[in-house]
Amino acid sequence: MSFKDSKVVIVGCGNVGSTIAYTILNQGLCEEIVLIDRNEDKAYAEALDMTHAVYFMNRNIVIRSGTYEDCRNADLVVVTASAPMAKDAHDRLEMLAPSMNIMKSITESVMEAGFNGVFLIVSNPVDIMSYYVWKLSGLPRNQVIGSGTTLDSARLCAELSVPVILDKTGAREIVEIDLSDEERRKLEKSGEIMKSFQDELHL
């Protein structure tokens, strides 16, 4: 995707979607960014804030709110929308049924617009959602990408990067895993033990 005439549509303007939009804007990765959200006022407000920020960035990028019709000539559609996870929930799969309904509606709306670019799925549970969008869209598998466990890997690198052992870059080389919730709890317990060990040694 070259910069000229390149267009990214982001569906979902919560914390994740807005951060992705700002990151793309800040790095100057495309020529146009379109924000879509069921709360149209939210999408408009986020786009307006970032439009004002462009003034300080030395960027020639248009960012605006829009509709699914904007997906027709988009190079990339990033989907961050999903069902909210209940505060007392401990398993992302609890979000599966409501998130599938949301994803079905989004995918059908995007494809009805004539989209033939690349889907990037960020919504949880991300692996299942990515597969679901691939099946629903009918696009080739190389046009539906999931963000996978990149965030989990970053979190684990941060936890492992204790000052006397590894920095975050070094930790990255050993982290290529997908953790179940039980494995995550065990890792958290190990982190607590490591922290108490550091405290005892005054590290």
Describe the structure.
By secondary structure, the protein is an alpha/beta fold. The protein has seven helices and six strands. The chain has helices at 15-27, 40-53, 96-112, 126-137, 150-160, 168-172, 181-201; strands at residues 7-11, 32-36, 62-65, 76-79, 118-121, 144-146. Strands 3-2-1-4-5-6 form a six-stranded parallel sheet, with helices on both faces. α3 (96-112) runs parallel beside α4 (126-137). The longest helix is centred in the C-terminal third of the chain and has 21 residues, at 181-201. It starts with 6 loop residues before the first strand and ends with a helix. The model has no long low-confidence stretch (mean pLDDT 84).
Our estimate of the beta-strand percent is 5-15%
Order of helices and strands: EHEHEEHEHEHHH
Mean pLDDT: 84
Class computed from helices, strands and strand pairing = alpha/beta
Write down the Rg.
19 Å
Fraction in helix = 40-55%
Assembly annotation: single chain
Unreliable stretches covering 5 or more consecutive residues: none
What are the SSEs and their pairings?
Elements: E1 7-11, H1 15-27, E2 32-36, H2 40-53, E3 62-65, E4 76-79, H3 96-112, E5 118-121, H4 126-137, E6 144-146, H5 150-160, H6 168-172, H7 181-201
Parallel strand pairs: 1-2, 1-4, 2-3, 4-5, 5-6
Helix pairs in contact: 3-4
